[in-house]
Amino acid sequence: MYPFSFTKAANTREALKAGRSGGRYIAGGTTLVDLMRETVERPETLVDIADLPLRDLRVTERGGLLIGALVRMAEAAAHPKVRSLYPVISQALELSASAQLRNMATIGGNIMQRTRCTYFRDVTADCNKREPGSGCAALHGHHRTHAVLGTSDACVATHPSDVAVAFAALEATVHLLGPDGERRVPFADFLLKPGDTPNREHALRQGELITAVEILPLPRPLRSGYLKVRDRRSYEFALTSAAVALHVRGGVIRGAKVATGGVGTVPWKLPAVEQTLIGEHPSDRLWAEAARHAADGARPLPHNRFKVELLRRTVERQLRVVGGTK
């Protein structure tokens, strides 16, 4: 680990000042400290924001949900309103990491975590995300766990967050605060696909803080859930996952929100699946028909071709779990 300075922000003003000067924000530290230990990240200054007032977790006046950036993953997963209104969020959180990590890691930190690509974390390997222009070792190396959606010739690394998949499905909004004031960014625009600049991973500007993630009100009744498929049951990242939320009234699907993880360079929304569902009656035939679109646009590599079919099966299974069968 390289030398660094450490400062603790007493309030938001101090945090923004330090961030504007190049300081890196840290709260739970469950990702950044690991990367510093592996010398992947080498920040000169860490700014501890753990004492900032960003722990609000409440139902909004219009019936949505606001989760402060410093709310711990375990706290959000266990909250009665999260569990009753948006079980897809609780389930995604509970299937993430170990209990000890969930007790430390924050919501803001979770969506900001960097890829688990072994080449990114190996400082001797070529990685455009870590060193722009150096190449992508995964393209010609072992890439079984890598992405098949949203990839480019510069990067095929997956985004590892489970709850980010739920946020993508529910079309969340990220609240930000920076030197130029407050702004809100749709979750779909917050995490960036690699393109030619895989080192640019998010829409944060210099010195900005994530203050909250908001789920806008969705029609009720709403059924939702999260499915994660992995090599082993305990403490493993997804090969594929599916976050599904369905608004069914009068035996007809009036609204559908579907996203997938483990297969994309960012949490991947599935609009073709959603469009196939809306206006239809729930049935096994419908789930299978919709799931056929789950891998539209996929660009698999030799080692991860299996993910295409696995993704379709994962989405079909979770549609059946959430929507029921007839």
From TrEMBL:
SMART domains: CO_deh_flav_C (SM01092)
GO molecular-function term, one example from the UniProt record: FAD binding
Domain FAD-binding PCMH-type, residue spans: 1-220
Pfam families noted in UniProt: CO_deh_flav_C, FAD_binding_5
Keyword Hydrolase included in the entry's annotation: no
UniProt entry keywords in alphabetical sequence: Oxidoreductase
Superkingdom of the organism of origin: Bacteria
PROSITE patterns xref list: FAD_PCMH
Protein name, as recorded: FAD-binding molybdopterin dehydrogenase
Organism name: Streptomyces variegatus
